[in-house]
Design brief:
ATP-dep_DNA_ligase, OB fold (Dihydrolipoamide Acetyltransferase, E2P), 7 helices, single chain, D-amino Acid Aminotransferase, Chain A, domain 1, alpha+beta, EC 6.5.1.1, five-stranded mixed β-sheet, ligase, NA-bd_OB-fold, 20 strands
C-alpha cells in the first residue's frame, strides 16, 4: 500500500461544549466505531481510533468499499450497525470476535455500514492541510455514486437545521451534533472539533461499588433502576471522582456494606446463565479479559442523581454517568425506568436519504 497518507492515522477528535456554536459545518454525531479507511487499489485497511486494524472484523465492508469508493483514497468515518431503523451499538461490539467463523456469521446476520464524513487523501494528493470546506466538496464528489452500505454523512452549515437535527435524530440512536470550523485543517489526535450531546438526569439506586485500581477507595459506583417487574437492573456506573472523594465515599457507604452478596438483588452476578434474563454487574465479556470484575455489595437503600447523555436500547447508560448529588428525599423503589425521557423514534434510513 502506497498512499499520500499512510496508516496509522489517529482521528481528529472533538471536545464537549454546552451549545451548538454558530457559523460552522454541522453533522450528526454517530454512535459507532470510528474508522479510517485506507484504499490503494485492491488493498483496503480499516484503522481504529487507536490505530489498530479493524479489517478482519468487517469483511462485508471491505468488499463494499472496493465497489463504492475511489481506487486510491483515505476516508474518515464511522462503522455502524442499523437494525429496525436504529443504531445498535451492542450488535456492533459483538463483531469484535477472535473466531473467524463467528465473524463470518455475524457479517451475514448483522452487516455493518460505513458513514464517511471526511476525506484525508485522494489519488496522489494528501488533504490534511486543505480547509474542511474544500475537503467536504471533494468528498461529496468522490462518493457521489456510492450506495448502501457506504454512506455520505449528511451535513449543513445552517444552524437552524443543526438544532433541528439535534432534537430529531436522537430517536434513531444518534447522540448529538458535531460542529467543525469551516477552515479547519485535519489535526490528528487533537480535539479541534466540537461535540454537543444530550444530557439528562436520572435518580438511580447505588447498589455497590468497585475498588479503584490504586487501592482501597471507590473506583466506580454501580447503578440500578427497577424494571416493570420490580427487579433491580444494573444500568451503568459513575466513576469520575477526585481521589479524596473516592476515599470519602468508602466511609459514607460503610453502613450499607454487606458482608457478602447473599440476599442482594444481584447475588447471581457471577453465574453466566443469570445474565441472560437480567442486567447484572460483571457480565462475561471478551472485552474484560482477565480484569477483576468483583465488587462490593451495598444494601440498595441509597439514591443518587446522575447525568447521562444516551441510553443504549433503552436499557443502560451508553457512557459513564456523571454523579450530581445524593437524593435522600427519594426512595429506591421510585427509581424506575419510567422516569427516563424516551426520544421520539426516527428512522435512520431517512437521515441517510434512503427513503422519503
Amino acid at each position: 500500500m502506497e498512499l499520500p497518507v499512510m496508516p496509522p492515522v489517529k482521528p481528529m477528535l472533538a471536545k464537549s461544549v454546552a451549545r451548538i456554536p454558530p457559523g460552522m459545518h454541522y453533522e450528526a454525531k454517530w454512535d459507532g466505531f470510528r474508522a479510517i479507511v485506507f484504499r490503494d487499489g485492491a488493498e483496503i485497511e480499516l484503522g481504529s481510533r487507536t490505530g489498530k486494524p479493524l479489517t478482519r472484523y468487517f469483511p462485508e465492508l471491505v468488499e463494499a468499499l472496493r465497489e463504492r469508493v475511489p481506487g486510491r483514497c483515505v476516508l474518515d468515518g464511522e462503522i455502524v450497525i442499523a437494525r429496525a431503523g436504529h443504531l445498535d451499538f451492542d450488535a456492533l461490539t459483538e463483531r469484535i470476535h477472535p473466531a473467524a467463523s463467528r465473524v463470518r456469521t455475524l457479517a451475514e446476520r448483522t452487516p455493518a455500514s460505513f458513514v464517511a464524513f471526511d476525506l484525508l487523501a485522494l489519488d496522489d494528493q494528501a488533504l490534511l492541510d486543505v480547509p474542511l470546506t474544500d475537503r467536504r466538496a471533494l468528498l461529496d464528489r468522490a462518493l457521489a455514486g456510492a450506495g448502501p452500505p457506504v454512506h455520505l454523512a449528511p451535513a449543513t452549515t445552517d444552524l437552524t437545521v443543526a438544532e433541528e437535527w439535534f432534537e430529531r435524530f436522537e430517536g434513531a440512536g444518534l447522540d448529538g451534533i458535531v460542529a467543525k470550523p469551516l477552515d479547519l485543517r485535519y489535526r490528528q489526535d487533537e480535539r479541534a472539533m466540537f461535540k454537543i450531546k444530550h444530557e439528562r438526569t436520572a435518580d438511580v439506586v447505588v447498589a455497590g461499588y468497585r475498588l479503584h485500581k490504586s487501592g482501597p477507595v471507590v473506583g466506580s459506583l454501580l447503578l440500578g433502576l427497577y424494571d416493570g417487574q420490580g427487579r433491580l437492573q444494573h444500568v451503568g456506573v459513575s466513576a469520575a471522582f477526585p481521589m479524596k472523594r473516592r476515599a470519602e465515599l468508602v466511609e459514607e457507604l460503610a453502613p450499607l456494606r454487606m458482608d457478602d452478596v447473599t440476599g442482594h438483588p444481584w447475588a447471581a452476578w457471577s453465574e453466566e446463565a443469570a445474565h441472560e434474563s437480567a442486567r447484572l454487574p460483571g457480565a462475561p465479556s471478551r472485552w474484560s479479559g482477565k480484569k477483576d470484575l468483583s465488587w462490593v455489595p451495598l444494601r440498595p437503600e441509597r439514591v443518587a442523581e446522575v447525568a447521562y447523555d444516551h441510553m443504549e436500547n433503552g436499557q443502560r447508560f451508553r457512557h459513564t454517568a456523571r454523579f450530581r448529588r445524593w437524593r435522600p428525599d427519594r426512595t429506591p423503589e421510585s427509581c424506575t425506568y419510567a422516569q427516563l425521557a424516551e426520544p421520539v423514534r426516527y428512522d435512520l434510513e431517512e437521515i441517510l436519504g434512503e427513503k422519503g
